[in-house]
Batch of 2 targets.
Target 1
Amino acid sequence: MLAYTYLDKGKFELMEKPVPVLRSSRDAIVRVTLGSICTSDLHIRHGSVPRAVPGVTVGHEMVGVVEQTGEDVTAVKPGDRVVVNVETFCGECFFCRRGYVNNCTDPDGGWALGCRIDGGQAEFVRVPYADQGLTKIPDSVTDEQALFVGDVLATGFWAARISDISEDDTVLIIGAGPTGICTLLCVMLKRPRCIVVCEKSPERAAFVMEHYPDVIVTGPEDCSAVVLENSLHGGADVVLEVAGTDETFRMAWECARPNATVTVVALYDSPQVLPLPQMYGKNLTFKTGGVDGCDCREILQLIEEGRIDTLPLVTHRFPLDRIEEAYRIFENRLDGVIKVAVEPICSSGN
Ligand SMILES: [Zn+2]
Ligand SMILES: [Zn+2]
């Protein structure tokens, strides 16, 4: 089968690999019907994910059909359409039992797929702990509607959940990339009095304005003034940092009111500084990222009910054998791209 593979820093290659086989009684093999490219894939390519194993098939955001299950898998069966969870978790350890599945103590626990074990930018993928890692897609939900449930949408959902948002709040979301927009969709479900989105790309700002007209959109220069103007207590009650640069990290705590919650969702390429003398007395609560992807069932239900719709995010589609081109467009943010759907059906026809 074709598998897009991390070879070395800066180098991914589409290569032939054997179709994966079951290795444990709790594994499943999934035929990938639609996958996507995530910013974290780019982080692997840039060498900023030290855990990533050279030779691994990348890709951790996908939906597919169960081909085969180990004898201890009970939640899914061959033929089921499923979302694959970005995280591998046992469901039994101290952290899993508390919903902190990102910190599962299993050797494969956490973000393993497409990083430490073979992922889904391929025709097939082996999913460990399939009862935890796979969620059945309701019949009325399409593959495309469900595509982001296991990763970026799970991240947005988790970020909104841990941020303790109330209806009196002004919420600032920094970054309107794919994860930022998914975060926005999930924050909107909490109905805060005001949502401000800060995005420096005019194209992405326009995307938010077009699709979510109730949201206030600002650029970084005006962000703190716009937040002040739209908040009741001298700053945002909740800030979600989804952009991941030095400037946006600083902006996150600067725009927060005293005693606010700052949820850091972004993955940074470099360490960040907390200037504690300047922040003294602001009494902020920081929550830092690493999605606990254990809400897929609930998210799929919200999609089924029409309360979350990520279809506008799918701006491009490519067959797997043209994935290089898909990466080039996604990485360089060409042609108004938000997310790319990758179909493992080769344009050569097999
Ligand atoms: Zn991802
Ligand atoms: Zn666990």
Target 2
Amino acid sequence: MLSFLKKLFGGENEPTVATPAAKSDPAPAPAPQSAPEPQPEPMPTSVAESESSVVEQPVVKTEVLASLYERIGGEAAVDAAVDIFYRKVLADDRINKYFEDTDMEAQAQKQKAFLTLAFGGPNDYSGADMREAHANLVQKGLSDEHFDAVMENLAATLTELNVPDELIAEAAAIAESTRTDVLGR
Ligand code: HEM
């Protein structure tokens, strides 16, 4: 689990480092307005001083890539997605039997955990946890087809929320990376 969180936080193809603050704080860490603020008006002060500082300043634009979790909308997006996702899962005859014995309230929390995880957000799950959480279900026959159904419901949920395709693909990749653990292989 950590590996794909890292992958996400690091932004696989991004040269810059994403903010690790997102781990504990889902709120948008980098203040959006504070970064792009070069001196607005070059005041006619000491020319020598301003000239040299202009030359020396090598355009310090630190492009911090937000985690998928942040880009997708953070906790608010998870909250919005939970209901839709849960409704879809419970309406899906391929997989709803796996959820019928679970306490609804606790399940909402778990759905939230699931989505936070799928968005690469802050969570404490490891591969071992995923194994453990689903071990019973594996005994009851949980397999690839069920996993695929969950993936489908996840994508459909995000589509319904107008999440851009590329972010859906990122979320799907993270969820996909749990397959072997969830299926206890
Ligand atoms: C896409 C991969 C999946 C991820 C990332 C995932 C994630 C999670 C997480 C985070 C929890 C909460 C664990 C806990 O704290 O107890 C959980 C529980 C659960 N998951 Fe998954 N899950 C996945 C796939 C599936 C599939 C395919 C099914 C069944 C079709 C399923 C059914 C359940 C159920 C029933 C629980 C609650 C178990 C209990 O009663 O404690 N999950 N899952």
